[in-house]
Amino acid sequence: MIQSRQPASRILFVCTGNICRSPTAHALLQQKAQAMGLWLLVDSAGISDEEAGRPMDARSARELVRRGHAPLAHRARQIKTADFLAFDHLIGMTRVHCASMARLREQAGRRFPGRSLGEVGLMLDWLPGQPRGQDVPDPWYGGPADFVRAFELIDEAVDALLAQLQA
């Protein structure tokens, strides 16, 4: 008899359009967990549908490559209520993303009564010893330094998330 193996955790990262911050977090967590032998189900989505179907932003992909990581073969998608059934943790890059997800989670609760729903959290709240409620700034309208800063914050939070998942 073959037993199906369940992932240790199921995580969805969420940003605005799903082309910069959330796919960066997705790629980092997926690759780091794999290197550690930890099986996670990882995906990403956007609050907005304006970028749906588009690949990862080239500037974010370049920063991943510059840091020794592979960019995702990714197509942006919008978050949906069913994601609250499919994922244990839905992690927003900003408080605005989390507020939007909280409203969607309420809709999911009405649509799927009695079902266990994933928890909404803020990306940088995974960092121990840091003030809660801090946003990962959107690098979209910025220059290369903004993409570097967003990457660094996401990378640090991904490491903290991995440490907590292993504990």
TrEMBL record:
SMART domains, per database record: LMWPc
Keywords: Hydrolase, Protein phosphatase
Xref: InterPro entries: LMW_PTPase, Ptyr_pPase, Ptyr_pPase_sf, Tyr_phospatase_low_mol_wt
Pfam families: LMWPc
Entry-linked CDD domains: LMWPTP
Annotated active site: C15, R21, D138
Enzyme class: hydrolase
Enzyme Commission number, as recorded: 3.1.3.48
GO molecular function ontology, one term from the record: protein tyrosine phosphatase activity
Domain Phosphotyrosine protein phosphatase I: 9-164
Domain of life: Bacteria
Family: Belongs to the low molecular weight phosphotyrosine protein phosphatase family.
Protein name according to UniProt: protein-tyrosine-phosphatase
